[in-house]
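Here we describe the complex-level prediction in full. Unlike the single-chain runs in Section 2.1, the three entities below were treated as one system.
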Amino acid sequence: MIDNLFTWFDNRLAISRSGRHLLNKIFPDHWSFMIGEIALYSFIVLLATGVFLTLYFVPSGQDVVYHGIYAPFDGQTMSAAFKSTLDLSFSVRGGLLMRQMHHWSANIFVGSIVVHMLRVFFTGGFRRPRELNWFIGTTLMILAIVNGFLGYSIPDDLVSGTGIRIAYSILESIPFVGSYLATLLFGGAFPGNGLIIPRFYILHVLIVPLVILGLLGAHLGLLFKQKHTQFKGNGAREDNVVGAPMWPNFMIKTTGFLFLTTAVSVLLGAFVQINPIWLYGPYIPFHVSYAVQPDWYMGWLDGALRVMPSWELHLPGHMIPNAFFPSVLLPGITFNIMMAWPWIEAAFTHDNVEHHILDRPSERPVRTAIGASVLAFYFVLFGASATDVLANYLSVSLNVVLLSFRVLCVVVPLVVYPVTYKICTEMSHTKGAGKRKQYNIIVRGEDGGYSAVPAEEYVGYQREVLEPIDVDSVDLAGVMSAPEPTSVDGVYQIPRDYR
Amino acid sequence: MLNQHSHDKTSGVAVSTDAQQFQVSAKNPKRVEKVAALTFFVSLVAFAGFGAAFWQNANNEMLGGTLGVGFLGFGAAMVIWGKYLTPRGPFEEERALMETTREQHDELVADFVVRGRVAFGRRGFLGAMLAASGAVFGIVALFPLVRSLGPLPKKSFYHTKWKRGSYVSTVDGRRLKAADLLPGSLATVFPENDLGGALSQTVLIRVQDGGDIVTMPGRESWGPEGYVAYSKVCTHAGCPVGLYEQLTKQLLCPCHQSLFEVTKGAIPIFGPAPRPLPQLPLYVDSAGYLRAQAGYDEPIGPGFWERGGTT
Amino acid sequence: MMRRSSPPISLAAAVLVVGIIGIGALGAGATTHSVVGKSHSPSARKTAAKTSQPVPPIPSIGQTLYDENCSSCHGLGAGQTSLAPSLLGRGAATVDLWVSSGWMPLAVPTAQPSRGPDQFTRAQTIAIANYVASLKPGGFSIPSGDMTGASVSAGQNLFSENCAGCHTITGSGDALSGQLNAPSLHGLNPTMITEAIITAPGNMPRFYPGALTAAQVRDVVAYVSKDIGHPDNVGGIGLGGNGPVAEGFIGLFIGVGACLLFALWVGDRSEDEESAEDALKEAHA
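The structure predicted for the assembly as a whole is:
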């Protein structure tokens, strides 16, 4: 029956040849190549849980009076968006689980994108011919961060609403066009005409996901065409790909991995509370909470806003406000350098040939040290977003904590660079550094001396690595013993009985 | 076609399916099968448990726990299958380098140019007309999107609803008298015609029991009977400055920890805020009510390009 | 608990040494905390809906305890000393709050008051508070903590407007400028919450009378003791109510971390160096 079905398609789409090409496609197997899959599969979880949420969420800023089951809000006026989120959390069966899964997988989505980007950066996977894919990837990262911000803002609670207020001020701070951008997006001076929640909503569920899907398609398509990079070892060369075939190995393993990454989101959503908006209450423009930080992937922006000294640029009749520098200029510079990195590195290394073999980070100490110190800089900024929480828990003066972070912003990257550089050079001069450990048995010889003999590790599968064989070159003579294929009007029939 | 030997492109030799690379990687496939089957069974039970939990309207942990164990088991079993019960490999395939020959490149360019010349050769004027029309379309296409979204800012950033004689009121409309608050008190207040207004929100602080609070030269009458009032919208990024430290007489903004000196015109002494909070001039009328002498004398809140060089 | 009456001064002199040793056994903090507050004018005393606790039959219990534990810094007359501010006219509610919250007594006068269990029994604390209040009229008497008729919903709204800016919307507390902080609001009883709102301790602004009516104070107290004290963490582990910072750490280290561990299982590791060198030779050949 399956071969009838396949024949039906084959006779209309002629898929046998390209289908064989697809089935035989080779995927390099290294575990770090699966980080992008973590992002892809958490995106699928986001889509699935997101669809559920859209069936219940009301994206409206209109005021309604709450008379639901959560007593502390009984009789209070709130936006319909906040009320529908409360209903999802308390009254819709499975609604809270879906909300929490959605938010946890959003955190995992952005987190795995960042880790994936770091993997590509530190192994040089952005070099020719993959500069375009790197550019698409960084765009995807920015869109993921933006969509995360939009998503946690639409419930219109006190914590995220404060973030929206800050976003208004950031837009406003842009020279020349700032006040126009802010009033256009929000519909007037803050809080605007009340349409910001529906606008954020449609951006979050339709416009940005469509762009993400399109770019994701391009990202995977380029990967498909150019084939994945690989590490040295086990017969890998610039002109081949060594690994596991699409069928059956990769298909089965990746399906399993999809379920495993989904399981992580489900279990977090089951047992760890996230974004408990009923504890925060609705957003009211003259209310505010202390200890308010954005979600972690925007934390570096919040930290930058805090550590920035109180400078403003005054020009005749105009000004560039303080908030512009840490929240517009800094991310602008960050993302531009990030996107341009393949060309920046090529300008210094004068390396314009095709690369399909990846570097080990310790082999490229300058690039690795630059990456580590820049990452450390943003990590310090992320830490700076929690100045008040840290001052409280460590019982240190708030002023001292902030001043410390201002110093750390500069000092930590300057320290990380030479330390990382040194580690890399030491590693590349040490035989076997960073490689799999070999198990040895100490044996004593007849003369009384000791020597180490490699031991056979016990693992549940055959550990010994074999020579790679060409996937297209299999001898099918012993496999297929079908009669001569018959052809009816040029359409080939696949024989029924085969071994 | 199917009976032909395929040729190994790298070595020219067909590889038999008896080769070691085709065997499963598990040393004991039967045992691995049993483990995978058991794991599938666990996930089956867990999924069924999810169904039961949902039917019973169980709590979040039960719903998510069963579903999560189900996914975990299913995924683990699939991975066991795909890792240990598949051909161990490794396999390789040819990788085409992302380069074309000079000849192929020239053929493409030639086709493009030859036929293109027929359509586009020496038709510059036509091309310019196309570009001009396209440019105009590109500009006006933005109009419905940009212009209709919201109003122009005009002067909306420059004024709040506070004006001369506005009664200082709490959000539920209660007009405040000078005698109402004790020293050390903090209240969020609004003009009567804009209760709860996002831009007119103001902090009213009774610093001391009586006497005038002069925060700056020129503001001698702004702080009657120990009261001062400042805009609650932080001049840094717009958060409500809701944290008043009674003993040190400072306002702390909770968002980015800017610190403002209440007795000195709310000038920022710490943190990123660049400008003082605008002060609302108060007076006490004959009936004892607190009222505003006028609106704010500068735009409240964070800065913007057109705001000008106010320090 | 019965004690013989004896002249306060001689008894105080006799137990002063014992009291100092006892206080020295308590923990010490780090820096100076100013506890100077203003005494309230008598005109501000409003009874509202609060009633006093019955005064213990023998007033000297309070005096005895005060002399033993408080007078070393506050002086026998509870006036301004070089070590501590005046307690005269502050009212019983103020003293009750500071003692029952564990802020007082301080081991050393310069220590930072920190929350802890009450060093005395409830009856003893009330006795001390009423004794101090009896020295000079002013302030509030100890409130009953009665919350009948209070609305948690109104309280939530008022809490969000007035309290969340310092104590955070979940009541977990946070740092103020310098080394001070707005403390956590978990584990408080209605009496203490009421006392804090009406006596404005430390850097806390004065919300009553004026900014809040008496009914509104009751609403806030009801919300804080019920929903802040026992938050509805229906979604699972509450992570301390600290918001996105804790969630981010969990999401990154546990969420992405678990996925990376799975990837380590599903994928392969790198091969050894000998093969790598061979591959390099082949590539250059």
